[in-house]
Amino acid sequence: MSSKELDLRQMHDTEFPLPMEMQGNVAITSLSKIYNWSRRSSMWPMLFGLACCAIEMIGTASSRFDFSRFGMEVMRATPRQSDLMIVSGTVTKKMIVPIVRLYNQMPEPKYVMAMGACASGGGPFKEGYNVVSGIDKYLPVDVYVPGCPPTPQALLYGLIALQKKIDGQSLANLDDVPWYGVGPSEPTPIPILGPDIIDPRQMDLIRRQAELAAAGMPVGVRELPPVIKTVKAIPSKAAKAAVAEVIDEGEAQRREEIMRRRQAVLARKRARDAAKGA
Length: 278
Known about the structure:
Layout: H1 31-40, H2 53-60, E1 84-88, H3 96-105, E2 111-115, H4 117-121, E3 143-145, H5 152-167, E4 192-193, E5 197-198, H6 203-214, H7 237-277
Parallel strand pairs: 1-2, 2-3
Antiparallel strand pairs: 4-5
């Protein structure tokens, strides 16, 4: 790559000053920033689609939007040469098995993007018997792109968000780059497809529930809080008499106020009659 295509001034990230005349030829930066810059600028998505979101993904790769401007134009048809898995569309229980298998075949570092409402949480098919309510139940998702389906502009925004996430990684923090840890990473368990899909990570819970069901004990029953019974106090005769006295006193005051108002109205009427007679 020639110096005209690469602006080294974008890579300056150091406390040591660099003369202006050398900034176009020399770059002083950190190893993490070089690593992140190379990863974000050569992201190779895996070429596969699941449903209608795949049409928008294809449109994003067309000449009108052209995500090759971000270094992502090399869409590979094999997981062994891919860095990014874009789950574009509805994920059924039958399809989640090969999806997890493809993810395990991708070399690290690898990223996952949930494109659309179906991949993020099930979408309009969330209550369906054959649709997974979100790919994040089986794979670690880095970026969610909402929409049904999302537009190419939304997918581009998600790709830019993923690049920003990569820019924040540090080689000194193994939580950011776990693939540089000691020993190989554990593959994601492949779901077991039977009468219903089973996550191997929940086998212990499923086995305990099956043992409880076989023993005739309740399984998955929500325990309600205990009901606290309150004893209604029975008023005594003295209390009843006091309440009746208060009621009688209030009734007397109300009747007295009504008579006072009636007398005032009659007095005004007599005054008007007298004025007319005079």
